[in-house]
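Supplementary Methods, section 5.1.

A reviewer requested that the exact input to the structure prediction be made available. We therefore reproduce it here, unchanged from the version used in the analyses.
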Amino acid sequence: MLASYGPNYVALYHGAAVVADKIFKGTKPGDIPVQLPYVFELTINLQTARALGISVPKDLLARADRVIH
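The structure derived from this sequence is encoded token-by-token as follows.
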């Protein structure tokens, strides 16, 4: 993987726990709105970039949430 942009799974799991808590407290599942991911992360793998001979611009690295060295 050179780069990835997608949802933060920890935030998704937290949202699922909130929905489960509402159900356990008696809310009907049909009354709970659908939750979409709201936190996204950009991950860049510099090891893969080096292996492919790709130079990653510094401004892109600065915007990345996670950089794998």
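The longest helix spans residues 9-24. These observations are discussed further in the main text.
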